[in-house]
Amino acid sequence: MRIYGDSISGNCLKVKWTADHLRLSYDWIETEVLKAQSRTSAFLALNPAGQVPAVILDDGRPLAQSNAIILHLAEGSDLIPADAYERAKMLEWLFWEQYSHEPYVAVARFQVRFLGKPASELEPRIVERGKAALQRMDEALGGQDFFVGGRLSLADVALVAYTREAGDGGFDLADYPNVRAWIGRVEQALNIAG
User: Fold this and answer.
1) Residue-level pLDDT at 194
2) How high is the mean pLDDT of the chain?
3) Do 173 and 143 fall into the same domain?
4) Closest to 119 in 3D by CA, of 183, 166, 179
5) Domain for residue 79, yes or no?
6) What are the pLDDT digits (tens) for 48-60?
7) Mean pLDDT computed over 141-169
8) Domain boundary among 44, 74, 104
9) pTM above the 0.85 mark?
10) How far is CA 17 from the centre of its chain?
């Protein structure tokens, strides 16, 4: 398997972390977005959307979109709850992450850390919605260690990727103590550096 990913991207890292956690064999092909490496004709032949991550499976079939990739990689593993309702709750968090979390927390991080924009100059809507996403997570984690079923699932893998870097976008994680404690648990479970 080949994983085309940019190491600065949380969406790419969640694919790497899933593969590592499951001890899957792969070749990581660094594909730097800031250098337009996902826009070359060779890359566009693999993924016409021009986005990373993209995976070429062992049988040669391509797959894109981070949450689709991690779902495929984790099929049949303990990262996907066996209980139908818990599995649906995990999917609920995966969809929420891409629609209500990543567009704000990750975008703020990208603009501040990689484009050099002062956090004070971020669009207020991005900041408000990023804070709302972090608050929703903090409330959901009250009294539980992980998002679904009391143990690590793809919901945690997907959400930790950009949440752990939220400070880069001007969000103060000290305001979200349940989230901070959860980040530590997920980092330990996935064996990733804090």
Assistant:
1) 64
2) 96
3) yes
4) 166
5) no
6) 999 999 999 999 9
7) 97
8) 74
9) yes
10) 10
The three-class DSSP label of residue 89 is helix
Q: What is the CATH number of the domain that holds 45?
A: 3.40.30.10
Per-residue pLDDT, 84: 97
Its domain, for residue 110, covers 84-190
Residue 89 and residue 185 in one domain: yes
Cβ atoms < 10 Å from Cβ of 65: 18
Question: How many structural domains does the chain have?
Answer: 2
| Judgement on whether residues 121 and 145 belong to the same structural domain of the protein | yes
Sign, CA dihedral 86-187-184-93, equals: negative
pLDDT tens per residue across span 68-97: 999 999 999 999 999 999 999 999 999 999
If DSSP states are collapsed to H, E and C, what string results for the chain? Answer: CEEEECCCCHHHHHHHHHHHHCCCCCEEEECCHHHCHHHCHHHHHHCCCCCCCEEECCCCCEEECHHHHHHHHHCCCCCCCCCHHHHHHHHHHHHHHHHHHHHHHHHHHHHHHHCCCCHHHCCHHHHHHHHHHHHHHHHHCCCCCCCECCECCHHHHHHHHHHCCHHHHCCCHHHCHHHHHHHHHHHHHHCCCC
Domain contains 125 = yes
Whether the CB-CB separation of 55 and 1 falls below 8 Å is answered with yes
Q: Pick from 74, 104, 133: which residue ends a domain?
A: 74
Assess whether 70 and 95 both reside in one domain.
no
Are 66 and 97 members of one domain?
no
